[in-house]
Amino acid sequence: MSQEPTQVNRENMEHRSLQTIMFTDVVGFSKLAAVNEERTYAALNRDFSMFKRVIDEHGGQVINTMGDGMLVIFASAVGAMRASLAMQENLHRTAMLS
User: Fold this and answer.
1) pLDDT digit string (tens) for 16-72?
2) Which whole-number Å values give the CA distances from 88 to 22, 39, 66, 72, 92, in the listed order?
3) DSSP 3-state assignment of 62?
4) What whole-number distance in Å separates Cα of residue 32 and Cα of residue 47?
């Protein structure tokens, strides 16, 4: 006997979830690295460490890093936005101290 069209076969359902994706990228990274590679990579490592800390604090997960970019997911758009703002504030503070 066939199932009614309105019935759902739960064994065959895919798991779905809503997530927010964040991608970071350093503007002008190649140009900066060409001028002073050592300083540029030191700054990138410093910033990535801060990013990872902030991402963790706001419930995010780093999926992948690609050179000067980072792919991140959050279960909440609010968490992603708060992390983004915290990252920008930290970058601004670091730039002001330099």
Assistant:
1) 888 999 999 999 999 999 999 999 999 999 999 999 999 999 999 999 999 999 999
2) 13, 20, 20, 16, 6
3) strand
4) 15
∠ Cα 79 98 32 (to 5°): 80
**Token code pair at residue 40:** 């540029």
Tokens of 29: 């990274």
Decide: 25 and 69 in contact? Cβ < 8 Å.
yes
Rounded-to-5 percentages of helix, strand, coil across the chain: 55, 20, 30
Q: 89, 90, 71: which is closest to 19 by C-alpha?
A: 71
Question: How far apart, in Å, are the Cα atoms of 10 and each of 2, 14, 19?
Answer: 15, 9, 22
